[in-house]
Amino acid sequence: MTFGETSPISFAMRLSLVRVFFRVTFLGSGVVSRNWGPTIRGGFGTALRELVCAYPNRPCRECPLNASCPYGYIFETPISASSAVMRRYSEAPHPFIFDPDPDCPVRVHAGSTATHGLVVVGEAVRHLPYLLVALRELGKGGLGGDRVPYRMDRVFTEDGTDVLEYPRQSFFTAVRPTLLEVMPGRSRWGRFRVDLATPTRLMIDGRLSRRPSFFDVIEALARRVFLLSCFHCQGSSEPQWDPFLDVARCVKCLHSDLRWMDAERFSTRQKRRVPLGGVVGSMTCEGDFGLLENLLRAGEYVHVGKNATFGLGKLRVFTGGPS
After folding, report:
1. CATH number of the domain at 184-319, please?
2. Rounded Cα distance, 88 and 86, in Å
3. What is the pLDDT of residue 293?
4. Domain boundaries, the chain
5. What's the rounded Cα separation, in Å, for the pair 28 and 112?
6. Kind and range of the H or E element at 229?
7. CA 122, CA 114: separation in Å to the nearest integer?
């Protein structure tokens, strides 16, 4: 799946991924969370490890099953010390992104429902059944401080195809990954808007930025797509994002209402609250959207910035009329 027509530039950062949605019904009432993404993501890691770990007392990197273990691959992705990328980056990005239901209230009631999204990237797609079972098991223990239990009713793809439905279907239906060829598209000037729908944490010169520019967003997104492609989709180990940055430098930001939003989560591992604040809002821009579209559309799947697996850095793109 390629967005738009492509230019003759002879490179692409390739991403293969699956986006599914899982619908849950709450079996009790209580307070769950103000920030659903971190709450689901935090419990998910524990549930997955309990489900698949054969050596729970060993660190993943010392486990003989690490290369084939779903938890080991997703949370401790094996990487080669000889990799050229390792000269610049010390760890691989996690190959999944949660996209929680934005309409979920802090307090839920028995019988209410929610539908959350999950994107799985590259080689991690083969572990999708384990991830979904872990999410189902997470519901038995409950979410949030009140440990509100839920039942997973249905898992389906973007086009509505059922992957799993309880109790009618007790087996998983294989999902065909979407292939994104992330390269500059055909030149097309005009106005467009980029929304940062959830707190977005961009590191600029080693510090969290409270006023990132459009170029900052594109640079962070291109880097994230490159790393996901390299580590999880057998992509090139040489960064290939300069053409996107060249275009982004020429984009004019007509209006920005970005603002800082405080957020936090409780870390079970660290036994303390961890800040997860970031910028939200929109940027209305004018420039060559066509050359950037493939990258921005990929960002709608994989998000941008730090802590994207929690659902942070959710990016949405809207096009306007030509300038």
Report:
1. 3.30.70.1900
2. 5
3. 96
4. 16-165, 184-319
5. 9
6. helix 214-232
7. 27
The two three-digit tokens of residue 242, written as one number: 């300069």
Which tens digits make up the pLDDT trace of 276-303?
899 999 999 999 999 999 999 999 999 9
- Rounded-to-integer distance, Cα 225 and Cα 11, Å: 14
Percent with pLDDT over 90 in the chain: 67
Find the largest Cα–Cα distance for the chain. Answer: 60
Structure pTM? 0.90
Across the chain, the runs of DSSP E, i.e. the strands, are: 13-26, 30-31, 96-99, 107-108, 113-121, 150-157, 162-165, 178-182, 189-200, 203-204, 207-208, 252-256, 259-261, 264-267, 272-275, 278-288, 315-319
Which SS3 state, helix, strand or coil, does residue 213 take?
coil
**Range with the largest mean pLDDT of 62-66, 170-174, 236-240, 283-287:** 283-287
Question: If you search the block for the tokens 């949030």, which residue do you land on?
Answer: 144
Based on C-alpha coordinates, what's the Rg of the chain?
20
Q: Are 295 and 288 in contact (CB under 8 A)?
A: no
Mean of the pLDDT values across residues 36-51?
Answer: 92
Task: Give Cα 109 to chain centroid, integer Å.
Answer: 28
Q: Is residue 172 within 8 Å of 136, Cβ to Cβ?
A: no
Write the pLDDT tens digit of every residue in 138-163. Answer: 999 999 889 999 999 999 999 999 99
Q: Which CATH number does 16-165 carry?
A: 3.30.70.1890
